[in-house]
Design a protein that fits this description.
single chain, alpha/beta, Rossmann fold, 2 domains, 7-stranded mixed beta sheet, 5-stranded mixed beta sheet, 12 helices, 14 strands, globular
């Protein structure tokens, strides 16, 4: 084991996989000399050279489009989008090309493409640089979606994404890059997609949380434990595929459920998970499934206003308390 920052875990896996497979290359805005805005590609240019670590123009459509083409030609590209907010400029390439090519050609073509980048709040980056957009990618078949919340998961899931044969949208969080944790030193360490992690055992309420909301959920769970309320925190880790059985097992045990995410509450992943629980675990529920997400407004620049829009620890505590009063 080695203690690493989230950003270091990503960088190290990129380097290890590039050493292992010469078909892997990285491209994106400022990924070469600068090493990426958050340092996730730092040092790669010096080791692998400009043919395998490529700066690109500011054109997400061109970045992803070139990645799709390279993947079809036998390469294994990893493209970085500086902010996931701007993935929508490349939506045709992601959702009409990368996601559908295997299906359209009857399995005769594959797109082993990793599209990685960061999203979320925490730096006052305002309305067009702070959004959480995972739901858009979940909606279209053919794209896998990962949202690691720890350095260990970032390393293990990224390695699985790189070695796979399908397009993966790998969503990091800007507020997690500086967090640290143990990461296995094994250069083959990988985590399967579709396998949730129980971050904390509990018997009273199931709290399903994603990405940066996982540490917030754990902090709230610690506070609630002082009141005698034991929360089970479930981290899906990947949204496509989603570990439905892990969520359902937990809900059947606790009888209560709350879903927490940073994305806007309306049509967020919480709605999908709440629907899953209602359809398949209704008889075990003691009360309604609750959801916590961002208020339905653009993300503010002012940090105090940003905090007012995004669920905070006290909001989670209050929602759990209300859930417990339901039954």
């Amino acid at each position: 084991m080695a203690d690493k920052k989230y950003s270091e875990a990503i960088r190290d896996v990129l380097a290890e996989e590039m050493r292992r497979d010469p078909r892997i290359f990285v491209m994106g805005e400022d990924v070469a000399e600068m090493g990426g805005v958050f340092g996730c590609t730092r040092g790669l240019l010096q080791e692998f050279g400009p043919r395998r670590v490529r700066n690109t123009p500011i054109s997400e459509a061109a970045i992803v489009g070139a990645g799709v083409g390279a993947a079809l030609a036998g390469m294994r590209p990893i493209v970085e989008l500086m902010y996931m907010d701007f993935a929508f400029i490349a939506m045709d390439q992601i959702l009409n090309q990368a996601a559908k090519i295997r299906y359209i050609y009857g399995g005769k073509a594959a797109v082993p493409l990793v599209i990685r980048g960061q999203q979320g709040v925490g730096r006052g980056n305002a309305a067009t640089h702070s959004q959480s957009v995972e739901t858009f990618f979940m909606h279209i078949p053919g794209v896998m979606v990962a949202m690691p919340s720890t350095p260990r998961d970032a390393a293990g899931l990224l390695r699985t994404a790189i070695r796979g044969s399908d397009p993966v949208v790998f969503i990091e969080h800007k507020a997690l890059y500086a967090t640290s944790g143990d990461v296995p030193s094994d250069s083959d360490f990988a985590l399967p997609f579709g396998l949730a992690e129980i971050r904390r055992e509990g018997k009273d309420v199931t709290l399903v949380a994603t990405s940066f909301m996982v540490p917030r959920a754990l902090a709230a769970a610690g506070k609630l434990a002082q009141e005698g309320i034991e929360i089970e925190v479930v981290d899906p880790r990947t949204l496509v595929p989603l570990d439905e059985e892990a969520i359902l097992r937990s809900v059947k045990k606790t009888g209560r459920a709350l879903v927490l995410h940073e994305a806007h509450r309306t049509c967020g992943v919480g709605a999908e998970i709440a629907s899953l629980i209602q359809e398949r675990a209704f008889r075990w529920l003691k009360g309604p499934v609750r959801r916590l997400g961002a208020r339905q407004c653009p993300l503010p620049f002012n940090l105090a206003l940003e905090n007012a829009v995004i669920p905070q620890e006290n909001d989670v505590v209050a929602a759990v308390q209300e859930t417990c009063r339901d039954g």
